[in-house]
Amino acid sequence: MGRAFVYVILGGGVAAGYAALEFVKRGISPGELCIISEEPVVPYERPALSKGFLLPEDPARLPSFHTCVGANQERLTPKWYKEHGIEMVLSTRVKSADVRRKTLLTSTGETISYRILIVATGARALRLEEFGVNGSDAPNVCYLRNLADATRLVEVMQSNTGGSAVVIGGGYIGMECAASLVINKINVTMVFPEAHCMARLFTPQISNYYEEFYKSKGVNFVKGTVLTSFEMDSTGKVVAVRLKDENVLSADMVVVGIGIRPNTSLFEGQLTIEKGGIKVNGRMQSSNSSVYAVGDVATFPVKLFGESRRLEHVDSARKAARHVVAAILEPDKTGDFDYLPFFYSRVFSCSWQFYGDNVGEVLHFGDYTSGNTFGAYWISKGRLVGSFLEGGTKEEYEAIARATRLKAKIEDPAEVERLGLGFATAI
Ligand code: FDA
Ligand code: NAD
Fold first, then answer.
1. Cα–Cα distance between 225 and 290 in angstroms, integer?
2. What is the pTM assigned to this prediction?
3. CA quadruple 352, 149, 70, 90: dihedral, nearest 10
4. 42: closest CA among 79, 83, 73, 2?
5. pLDDT tens figures, 365-408
6. Which ligand 2 atom minimizes the distance to the CA of 194?
7. Tell me, what's the ipTM?
8. Of the residues 88, 314, 352, 355, which should be mutated to test ligand 1's pocket, given the most ligand atoms within 8 Å of the CB?
9. What is the mean pLDDT of the chain?
């Protein structure tokens, strides 16, 4: 059995939702577009899962955070897809793809063919087993990638109020989950191998601010080490975490956030893979002209840096999704994707934004003691290439984004350091 569509989006996450809206805005006919997703629900704003969804009071629940509310656009409910004649194939995993024949084989045994395919399969959370540690399936060990994970995390959190959690990993998931656990009255110890948190992005000075802030909320940090094994009780529940430095941390629950791998496996050997993702050009087109890729799974040319990157952030997924639809439906009017990388996070009362690239020399500015507003600029070859700001206003964030996009010239770093945020707002 099989069905045929003009456009198929493989994956039903952030990029799929934003692409669907763009298809409808630009005009497609009912029955032309199909979205296939392993998840049981239509696309939603994944960032909500580590923030609003985990709140003990008035938590975010679907349908409130379906795409595209995250960009202040229409909220696409199941009814919306139906009304626009978009075929949603949910709870269905694509098992194999044949780009030569332009077909996808699903877990239900159906063959779905396409004229144009957009791969938006995102990524999967890395498992501890991949680092030689067993125990991921224990009932109180949680990962966080999708709605099912988040629902389970809430259940485990609620049954451990007043207890203790060990958070493995000092990246985005670790930091955001640690804050949510504290808000849920759980005592948190964070364990990660680096010397400071968010090591992929933050400077030690920036990290230090957040670590002190977290400590003031009761979070304990164990840095420069990794876990080696779990201690379990007779029911298979984790009761303690053994570390390489020989410390043992007792735990009522564990949250693991140790990075992701893009879901490229269906296309390995069929499409060019680069830097772990499906390599695409500025139109998000892969090495096969009928296949496009966007979101966490795509390695695309970042014009501003003059090189291809894979970005694991929601703004990139949203904007690339809009761009790919424009490139498909109006190829003559659509140029290359010109994207300024943008990352952000919100934890406790903190809120930061980052634009550009974190390479080169760093200048810190602002008040790192009170934490009201502080930031950093990254400078390379006499130009501003990256900006970070905590506690900014909308206008201030816009200013650092603009200055970074313009690659503002920096002749006197000491003067820029003195001007701080004023350097960007004056541009
Ligand atoms: P996404 O993961 O959203 O969607 C992929 C979809 O493909 C899923 O529905 C998956 O089930 C499906 N799929 C995969 N393989 C399939 C197959 N073989 N068959 C069928 N379906 C398949 N970023 C940010 O900038 N700010 C933030 O605050 C956050 N916060 C955040 C919190 C949490 C908990 C996570 C996990 C991630 C974030 N992110 C984030 C990252 C951001 O959510 C991420 O970059 C985007 O969701 C990427 O969108 P994609 O559409 O590429 O993948
Ligand atoms: P990450 O790459 O941000 O951090 C991974 C962390 O894992 C590292 O900082 C390191 O401390 C730790 N680590 C690596 N190997 C380890 C090991 N063997 N033992 C212990 N710790 C180890 O990845 P993540 O935090 O898992 O986030 C997953 C994805 O979700 C990323 O794509 C991220 O961009 C996305 N996300 C983004 C946001 C945001 O942008 N605000 C929020 C949540 C999630």
1. 46
2. 0.98
3. 160
4. 79
5. 999 998 789 999 999 999 999 999 999 999 999 999 999 999 99
6. 11
7. 0.99
8. 314
9. 97
